[in-house]
Amino acid sequence: MQQTFETWITPIMIGGLILFMCFIIWDLAKKSQAGRFGTIMLFVVLGAGMLGYVLKVVITWMLENGGGV
Predict the structure, then answer these.
(1) 54: which residues sit within 8 A by CB, 6+ positions away?
(2) Cα gap 3→32, rounded to integer Å
(3) Residue 4: which residues within 8 A CB-CB, separation 6 or more?
(4) DSSP states of 2-32 as a string?
């Protein structure tokens, strides 16, 4: 039961955290009046860490399921 709960809740909570972090980046761009280019740069630079995590999860899943060959 606990393992099933953890299996379901972990991706949901991490997805929620990523969405919240995107909101924080957007709010930072809005409050700092970054403009269009500045907003894009904030998302590219600050979102790179989130993208790295998502890619790690996808690559790990592919390797575990034999899709990496």
Answers:
(1) 18
(2) 43
(3) none
(4) HHHHHHHHHHHHHHHHHHHHHHHHHHHHHHT
Tokens of 29: 């761009």
Cβ(18)–Cβ(43) under 8 Å?
Answer: no
5 confidence band (pLDDT: 50, 70, 90): confident
How open is the CA angle 18-21-27, to the nearest 5 degrees? 145
Ordered by start, the domain boundaries in the chain are 2-64
Residue 2 to residues 7, 9, 15, 57, 59: CA-CA distances in angstroms?
9, 10, 20, 22, 26
Question: pLDDT per residue over 21-54, tens digit each?
Answer: 999 999 999 999 999 999 999 999 988 988 898 8
